[in-house]
Structure formats: C-alpha cells, structure tokens
Amino acid sequence: MKFTVPTVIAIAAVLAVGVALGRWWPASTDTPAGSDTAEKEVLYWQAPMDASFRRDAPGKSPMGMDLVPVYAVDAASEDAGVVSIDPRIVNNLGIRTASAELSPLSRRIETVGYVGYDEDTVHHVHTRVDGWIEELSIKASGDRVQRGQVLFALYSPTLVNAQEEYLAALKSRNSALHEASRERLAALGVAADEIERLDRERSVKQRLQVLAHSDGVVAHLGVREGIYVTPSMDVMSIANLDRVWVLVEVFERQSAWLKEGQKAEVELDYLPGVRLTGEVDYIYPELDSGTRTVKARLRFDNAGETLRPNMFARVMIYGTPTSPVVHVPREALIRGGETNRVVLALPDGKFRAQPVEVGIEAGDRVEILSGLSADDSVVTSGQFLIDSESNIESALARLGPADNAVTTDDHAGHAMPSEPAPQDHSGHHGMSMNHGADRGVSDEQVPENHSEHYDVSLECDAEHRISAEHESQDHSEHEGMSMDHAADKEESQR
C-alpha cells in the first residue's frame, strides 16, 4: 500500500489527538453528594412514561415525548419513593388532585333493573266449566279493559243445564231446592246480575258473558275466538299499572346493606335528569349461584304510567349513613393484587405512593380505613405514571445508598485517570510506512543518498508535545518511524 506525504501527516495528527485527549479526559463525571455545584444540577434525563429509560442529555423518549430532568438536589433530599416532577410536566400530563374528606358516607348501591307488573294486582281469568269461547272482545295483549267490561261469551252445556235446574226449582216452590240450585250457579261462575235476570225473565241463555273484575291492561291472552277451554286454562291476565315492580340484582358483597323499606331511586333513558322514588319491597332469600347476586324487588307508584313493563332502569338504593369516615374519590384508588394505593400530592411538586386499607364503596367514593388523614391531597388523574416511578425509586433505595453520579453502560470501566501516569514505551514498536513511487518513476530517477525532512507537531497543552521528525541520517539501527522513499517496483506495477 502506498501513502503520500499529506496522508502521513494526517495519520500522525489523528494519533496525536487521540493520545492527548485520552490523557486529558477526566477520570469520572461523578459529582460528590452534597457539593455546592449539586444545586439544580441535572443528574439524568428520563422518559415521562418509562422511568427506566434514562439518558445523560436532553432528547426524546421512544414514544416521542421530551425527556424530563431529574435534579441532584431533589434526589439527595427526597425519601425513598418520593417523585419530584417539574410543574410544566405536571400540566402536560394532566395531573389532577382532590382532598380526602371526613364525613358520613352513605351505603349507596348502584345497579340496574327491569320494570315489571305488580303481581299483587294481576287478575287471572279462568272459566269454571268446560265450553267454547264465543264473541271474544279482547283481540291482543296490551288492550285496556275497565271493571265490568265484557271480555268474552262462553257456551257451556253445563251452564245451560244449571240454569234449567234453577228454573225448575223456582216452579217447585221448594225453598231448599231453590237455594241449592242458586248456589250451584254461583259456584259455576254465573254473576249475581245474571241470576236475578233468571228470576225475572224465567228464560235460559245459551251463552253467558264473562266480565272484567278490575281496570288494567291485558298482560296475557291465551285464547282465540272459538277455542275450547277448560277450568285449568289461563284465558287471560289483567294487570293494573298504577303500581309496578322493579326487579334488581345486587352483588353478594353488598347484600348485607339491603333492608326492606330502604329508599330507592330509578333513572330512565327516555327521561334524562328525572328520578322516580320508591322503596325496597322484598329481598329474595336465595343467592343466584350463576351470577353470585341477590335479587330484590322494588315497588314504585305509577299513577301517570311513567314506568312501563320491560323498561330498563338504572337503580340507586340508599342504605343507612355511616359515622364520619375518611373517604376519597374512587378514581384515586390504585388497586393491586395484594395492596391498594393512592398517590399523595406533597408540597413543592413532589408525589409519593401511599398504601391504604379500603373500606366500603358508596357511589364514586371509597372509604379509607388507614393510610390517609382528612384533607390529604391525592392524585385522581395521571396517578399510574407517578406510582410506577415511585415504585422504581423505592426499589432502588432498598438495593443500597443512592449515588448522585450518573454513568451509562456504554462507558462502564472506561474512566481515565485525571493525572497522566508514566508509562514504559520501550517495548512498543513504531509505525512503519513504505511509500511507493508514482507510476512512471524508475529507480534510476531517484538520486542516491536522497533525503527529506518532515516535522509534524501538535501542541495539546503545556505538558504534552508530540513531534515526529525525519532527519537526514541513518536509521538502520532504530525501530522508530521509517519512511522509505525507494521505488517499489512491484507496487508501481500495480
């Protein structure tokens, strides 16, 4: 390989710079803890959403966010688990806080339910004899009926025979027989008005009318005109909507809060902002093994028919208020596998994860049995980021005493001493460079005893001077830099 004179100069300069910088580079970037320069000195820069991502200079995190500085004065003065965040970063992360309150907490149960008929007001219509439905006036479920309205006409041979027997008893003037036949008609479902008609008209009717006993709507219609019915058949059901039930399911852990007579409220999607008030009417004795819930029945007055059967409702059941307890918003609680935590907001932009013991939950509030005091400020938004950083800081503190020095894995073990130590170079070999002649230059064109002088010098500081000299002298016994300007025939031919 052939080198020109400028190339030799450049290589020597690079080597000189490397040696000088290696001797001059400080031994460590460590900053002694507690020094005056530690105030507001940045220890490192870390990602806002990944505390394990740290760098020695500002930059971007893998998520494209600006790295956050961590100061030496803050790290030295904080306890384990305390996180300090710049106020600008607090605003950027959208961190919000709320105060822990000391006040009675109502055991409020929030659940959902479905509106149904009040089964206490449902009237089932059956015939007491076999027969055929004729002249059915109810056409479909949901039809409204009024008390005394004709529902259908029934033809039954049994009823025809009973009427004839009653008329025969009237003619016989046998009071005992007359009374027995009258009771038989009543037992077969013949209305008192129809019996009085028999007394007046003395004529048998082939079809007897069945009347409604209450106002309401037809909840169920089980027959059609012309069908043959028996006493066991449910011809129709009539329900009153002046009062309805709401059936709800309550989780097992909240079942102890349920008591009959408790106040309950419902909200409907089609009536936003309107709450209807009722009460707990009945609590079913069994727990559903599939859903692990307890069923309860709520009763609501419904004179305006605001609640309609099968409507979906959001339900709130209010239990007895507790004595004053410390409670925080539910969103401030960080639930863990073994412990629950909140993030305390400390003065001067500091935060700390605080383990707490949780009591009852009521709506959007959670009782805190231990770990917090009234008026403590807790983080309600962005607490997961702070909690993650706090856990990392606590873990590092448990491993050993904190050190303000910041090093990176890329430079581990590469620190240079601040003072250059004397070194023995006696066993080092110099650099040998053979410079071939340019093309077209023969050996005869190079004069005998040809010599040149080069001086390459780089001034690094007052103590280190590198000089490379090539004098017009015989170097046959030296191992230093050798520059051979003889033409290399083989290299020239290449």
Helical content stands at 10-25%
Strand residue content: 35-45%
Task: Please name the CATH topology of the largest domain.
Answer: OB fold (Dihydrolipoamide Acetyltransferase, E2P)
CATH superfamily of the largest domain: RNA polymerase II/Efflux pump adaptor protein, barrel-sandwich hybrid domain
Cα end-to-end separation: 10 Å
Domain CusB-like barrel-sandwich hybrid: 122-239
Domain Heavy metal binding: 44-70
Domain CusB-like beta-barrel: 243-317
Domain Multidrug resistance protein MdtA-like C-terminal permuted SH3: 325-382
General description of the model:
There is one protein chain. The protein has 494 residues and is an alpha+beta fold. It has four domains: 98 residues, no CATH class; 69 residues, Beta Barrel (conserved putative lor/sdh protein from methanococcus maripaludis s2 fold), CATH 2.40.420.20; 90 residues, Beta Barrel (Elongation Factor Tu (Ef-tu), domain 3); 113 residues, OB fold (Dihydrolipoamide Acetyltransferase, E2P). Strands 4, 6, 21, 22, 23, 24 and 25 form a seven-stranded antiparallel beta sheet that branches. Strand 23 and strand 24 form a beta hairpin. It is elongated. InterPro entries: 3HB_CusB, Beta-barrel_RND_2, BSH_CusB, HMBD, MdtA-like_C, MFP_Cation_Efflux, RND_pump_MFP. Keywords: Cadmium resistance, Transport, Zinc. CzcA and CzcB together would act in zinc efflux nearly as effectively as the complete czc efflux system (CzcABC). The CzcB protein is thought to funnel zinc cations to the CzcA transport protein.
